[in-house]
Amino acid sequence: MRFRACVENVPTFCKIMQVIDRLQKKCIIQFKPDVMRIICLSDANEAGIQVWSEIKVSTLFNEYRIQSNADNIISMNIASASLLHALQGIQNALATSGTGSGLGGEEVLMKLAKKNDQALLNFALTTPTRTGRLQSLTYDVRIEVLRALDMTKINEPLCPDADTLVLLPSLPTLRSPVERLRALSSTLFVRANIGPPTKLLLEVTGDENEVKVKVEFGVKYVQINRQEEEDAEAPGKDKERLYSVPIVAKSFVKFLNCHIVNGHVIAAICHRHCLILYFYIGSAGADAGGVLTFYIPSLVDDGPM
Amino acid sequence: MQATLDVTGLKPFTKALACLSKYGDDLTIYATPDSLSLSSTNSSMSAYARYKFVKQFFVRYNVGDKKTGRDRLADGVQEVLTVTGQLLTKSLLSILKHRTVEKSVSRCELSIVEGISSDPDDEDNDSLESKLIVRLHCKHGVIKTHRLLLLTPTSLLAPGSPSTLSESRLTIGPRSVKDMIEQFPSTKTAKGNPQLVWTFSHTDVHLKSVDSFFDSKAGAQLSTELTISADEFDVYDIYCPPITIAFHLREFNASIAFADSLALPLDLRFTDPLSPLYVDLGDDTFEALFVISTSQVHGAGGGASQSRGASQAANGDGPNGNGRKRSRDEDEPRRLANRKKPMKVVQRTDVPGYHRTSEPELMPPPSSIPQRRSPQFSQPHAGPSSARREESEPLFFPPSSLSAPRPQSPLFTQHQQDPEPLFLPGSQPSQAIVDSGLGIESMSAAEFEAMFEGDEEEMELLGSQTLSQKQLMEGGESSLQRGKEEERKLEESETESDTEPEDDSMSFELLPTQESREGDKSFRPLFED
């Protein structure tokens, strides 16, 4: 089992970990020959939120070398905060040394290592200090290597094609209404139609049915590809129909914690099944720094939608 | 004492207070005619900070005001004019650090009024308590006056100076050292007190975080190391490289923040891995000294100095740690005397209290326990616990022993001088016993037991049915009480094996308070059919 790479894009890696750290203390990172996967399973948080994300190796690393007996895949359990701290430290060091962006310049070497029988992810770099002298920094992040067998038990949730896809308003905008809604009830209904006009509704009903609050956002419908459009044109699809999913309000709040990182979010609603949130770090589209996929399962519905 | 600060002096003064507040809660003021010292020690006595502002730092400064003569009267025959006082750092800091203060204050007067004044006309001087008066002269002629109560300092602690023979000296700019420490992410986020291990070798300085997970603590998941050229230091004079020291950062960071705010370089001095680290900084008008205890490093390679440290650790962690104490308690004799006195008093009153609380007793805990040790002090008494030492070694030992608590206020001291027993010894009758009117106070142990035996017989005679009207008539009030008491005792006898007369008298002491409860026992229906 060998693994070694240069972290080229420290700021993005750092941002990704910032998001993950907000969500869960521990996460699984899986290094594959072409992608890095970050997985947060629902069992570690009560809200049932999961993260399944794939980040292309080329967006973060170069000189990426990986070798293992399990199809050259290395999976590990890692404390998100520790990895984040290491990356922040590196970012900080690169910033003081004057290279500013942290892109390129000094080499940040990341490798799998073992010290005192403890597996760890080692980050090493050499940067000039403020006075121009060289300093060398190493961060050892403790990891737990997961066997391939363990990984087979971890499966991505299955879900049907999304009924509607909308571009969420900016997360800071959403935060305050959602906080207020959460105070009223633990269940949040997320509804959206196809449109136009496309609207997103966040709705709660008080625990004793005494109050019903609806927050409506005008949003943009996202067309993924031609195929989708053709499907949408199909007569069976009602453009006005609201597709709904009841979720644990807390999990949406947790997701909104990601507002600290700039990004765009596309929400996919699978009617009465799940809410999937695609968080594009930086800008949406092909040049996104990375995509984090949040999966929030639907609550078992106990009434008319 | 009067001291006046102008705008230029106020800023470093406030910053110094902010730094002191990170070291400890209590601020000790020690003013002499030449300088004003402010010091603070943390709760585990592992870090100490002292700022010494010389006369020139202030616009106006004097101690024991000779001009007015009024204060002279107050000072009486005191020959050396010193003023001491203690208060919470926060209370002074919150006044000076206030937002509006920084903007609008043009002058700040600090004065200490000692509480032994006999002049009833002076409104500042009319109490027995010492006060620190802070008078802020703001814009538009606004004058704000704050009066802060001063306590008598419990002890004036002062660190010893390191032996200069094997001393290593370093000088570094605040910015550089700040950059170095910032590389350790745990220092920013952790709620605890992170520790860094510094290894000084010939050409390099190696820093390592101690929250290393190799000690297999579940919490620590990240270990950081930094190697930096020795050239980063302006002065790099290591006595016998390589040398490894480790210390906690909370207080050190406070010192760095202060140095950084005033752009003053830090002078670091240390000898070996077990002696404290000394940090000096200052300019013409003030000097600051910070002493931070270092701790033993586990596992980390430190070469010869490490093993030397280990052997010293064995010595230092002996039953009383005498060797270290002596070197650190170098102090002015006058101060020593100051410190010795309360210690002695504390010890004397403390012993019975301690023994009492450790005895298994029928008595409920007293409502106020001034003599009970605080856990902080009781721990070392049980023997030097090495685990605690590793974390933070007390730098400053009170002269006689570690275990004695510090008196907190003059009130407390008075209490110790005239100790009112919390627990009456068994041989003395308590007021409750006398009040019970049973004549127990005059009984011998045999008589006392006989009294109960008699009751027992009576109980048997009467069977288990309790306290009929007849018995009330016959036995009278006191017999009823005794009967009840005995009944209670019988109930308790299963659990209480200790039936010595002393304890019986103790249990009788409770009688008045429990009477009403006992009375409730007789069953009365709430509603009649």
From TrEMBL, chain A:
<dbReference type="GO" id="GO:0031573">
    <property type="term" value="P:mitotic intra-S DNA damage checkpoint signaling"/>
</dbReference>
<dbReference type="GO" id="GO:0035861">
    <property type="term" value="C:site of double-strand break"/>
</dbReference>
<dbReference type="InterPro" id="IPR007150">
    <property type="entry name" value="HUS1/Mec3"/>
</dbReference>
<dbReference type="GO" id="GO:0006289">
    <property type="term" value="P:nucleotide-excision repair"/>
</dbReference>
<dbReference type="GO" id="GO:0005730">
    <property type="term" value="C:nucleolus"/>
</dbReference>
<dbReference type="InterPro" id="IPR046938">
    <property type="entry name" value="DNA_clamp_sf"/>
</dbReference>
<dbReference type="InterPro" id="IPR016580">
    <property type="entry name" value="HUS1"/>
</dbReference>
<comment type="similarity">
    <text>Belongs to the HUS1 family.</text>
</comment>
<dbReference type="Pfam" id="PF04005">
    <property type="entry name" value="Hus1"/>
</dbReference>
<dbReference type="GO" id="GO:0000723">
    <property type="term" value="P:telomere maintenance"/>
</dbReference>
<dbReference type="GO" id="GO:0000724">
    <property type="term" value="P:double-strand break repair via homologous recombination"/>
</dbReference>
<keyword id="KW-0539">Nucleus</keyword>
<dbReference type="GO" id="GO:0030896">
    <property type="term" value="C:checkpoint clamp complex"/>
</dbReference>
<dbReference type="GO" id="GO:0044778">
    <property type="term" value="P:meiotic DNA integrity checkpoint signaling"/>
</dbReference>
<dbReference type="GO" id="GO:0033314">
    <property type="term" value="P:mitotic DNA replication checkpoint signaling"/>
</dbReference>
<protein>
    <recommendedName>
        <fullName>Checkpoint protein</fullName>
    </recommendedName>
</protein>
TrEMBL record, chain B:
<dbReference type="InterPro" id="IPR007268">
    <property type="entry name" value="Rad9/Ddc1"/>
</dbReference>
<dbReference type="Pfam" id="PF04139">
    <property type="entry name" value="Rad9"/>
</dbReference>
<dbReference type="GO" id="GO:0030896">
    <property type="term" value="C:checkpoint clamp complex"/>
</dbReference>
<feature type="compositionally biased region" description="Low complexity">
    <location>
        <begin position="369"/>
        <end position="380"/>
    </location>
</feature>
<feature type="compositionally biased region" description="Acidic residues">
    <location>
        <begin position="493"/>
        <end position="506"/>
    </location>
</feature>
<dbReference type="InterPro" id="IPR046938">
    <property type="entry name" value="DNA_clamp_sf"/>
</dbReference>
<dbReference type="GO" id="GO:0000076">
    <property type="term" value="P:DNA replication checkpoint signaling"/>
</dbReference>
<dbReference type="GO" id="GO:0006281">
    <property type="term" value="P:DNA repair"/>
</dbReference>
<feature type="compositionally biased region" description="Basic and acidic residues">
    <location>
        <begin position="515"/>
        <end position="529"/>
    </location>
</feature>
<feature type="region of interest" description="Disordered">
    <location>
        <begin position="458"/>
        <end position="529"/>
    </location>
</feature>
<feature type="region of interest" description="Disordered">
    <location>
        <begin position="300"/>
        <end position="433"/>
    </location>
</feature>
<dbReference type="GO" id="GO:0071479">
    <property type="term" value="P:cellular response to ionizing radiation"/>
</dbReference>
<dbReference type="GO" id="GO:0031573">
    <property type="term" value="P:mitotic intra-S DNA damage checkpoint signaling"/>
</dbReference>
<feature type="compositionally biased region" description="Basic and acidic residues">
    <location>
        <begin position="482"/>
        <end position="492"/>
    </location>
</feature>
<feature type="compositionally biased region" description="Low complexity">
    <location>
        <begin position="305"/>
        <end position="314"/>
    </location>
</feature>
<protein>
    <recommendedName>
        <fullName>Rad9-domain-containing protein</fullName>
    </recommendedName>
</protein>
<feature type="compositionally biased region" description="Low complexity">
    <location>
        <begin position="394"/>
        <end position="406"/>
    </location>
</feature>
